[in-house]
Amino acid sequence: MTVIDAWIQHPTPRFLAHDMLASLRRWTGDGVIPTDQVPLSFTLDALDAADVEQALISAWHGPEGSLISNEEVAEWVAQAPGRLHAIASVDLRRPVPAVRELRRRVGDDGFKGLRVLPWLWEVPPTDRRFYPLFAACVELGVPFCTQVGHTGPLRPSETGRPIPYIDQIALDFPELTIVCGHVGYPWTEEMVAVARKHENVYIDTSAYTTKRLPAELITYMKTGSGRHKVLFGSNFPMIFPAHALEGLGDLGLDAQTKDLYLHGNARRVFGLL
């Protein structure tokens, strides 16, 4: 079984110290998320345990600064070439330097996309500061990755609504590939509707184990178009890939749909070999 994980993080001490993890620890248990300096082998071992062939590893930037820097991500990818692929993050408050940083990381370092989390900034993804970045993603041919649905961290959830926000972005930038992580719950039906409507909108299942995937998303995955629109993601280290994949056989996916979900769609969307 070939697996590509569309959303992981390798945690830095800055990331681990952020208050967002306080509420997540109530769900995952204190023993799951580490609390200090973590070697890269910790993440690679977790991928090995689930037979994850490749993973998209993300930087994090918020109003308080870099929680996981693009430079750190580039160094980790260099230590595991062909196994890890970098996703950039940028300072939303400074759109022009942010665009320059994105261009540099994609052009010089081979980054595969951009991820910005609206809840971290407490602004919707239709905020005007996002739009230069959307245009740059289109020109660079890389996806914009984001979060949809409620927030586990204690932040407002409104910014994660697929309608109106993802719908509006897809209307304004029809050439932009948008990968929406965390399935959109409790608005999963909205998220599916937006993915059906827009050719370049995708859903990844990060932050949800297989056993917790909403029924409407599973139904969509089994349709002719839906089988090409959903990507597996874990959101490691909050959920380990092996745990996220438990119960996969119970979904009733045919062989083609399962292959597209586990790796085929990610290869196409992120341009992986």
What is this structure, in a nutshell?
This protein has a single domain (3-270), classed as TIM Barrel.
CATH class annotation: Alpha Beta
- Please count the beta strands (DSSP E, at least 2 residues each): 10
What is the second-level CATH architecture? Alpha-Beta Barrel
What's the SSE pattern? EHHHEEEHEHEHHEHEHEHEHH
Distance between the termini: 16 Å
Structural class: alpha/beta
* Number of helical regions: 12
* Average pLDDT: 95
Helix content: 40-55%
Strand order of the largest sheet: 1-2-5-6-7-8-9-10
How many domains make up the coordinates?
1
Gyration radius from CA atoms, angstroms? 17 Å
3D architecture notes:
The structure is a single chain. This protein is of the alpha/beta class and 273 residues long. The protein has one domain (3-270): Metal-dependent hydrolases (TIM Barrel, Alpha-Beta Barrel), CATH 3.20.20.140. The protein contains twelve helices and ten strands. The strands form two sheets. It has an eight-stranded parallel β-sheet with strand order 1-2-5-6-7-8-9-10. A two-stranded antiparallel sheet has the order 3-4. Helix 8 links the parallel strand 7 and strand 8 (178-181). Helix 5 (95-109) runs parallel beside helix 7 and helix 8 (162-172) packs parallel to helix 9. The protein is globular and about 45 Å long. It starts with a strand and ends with a helix.
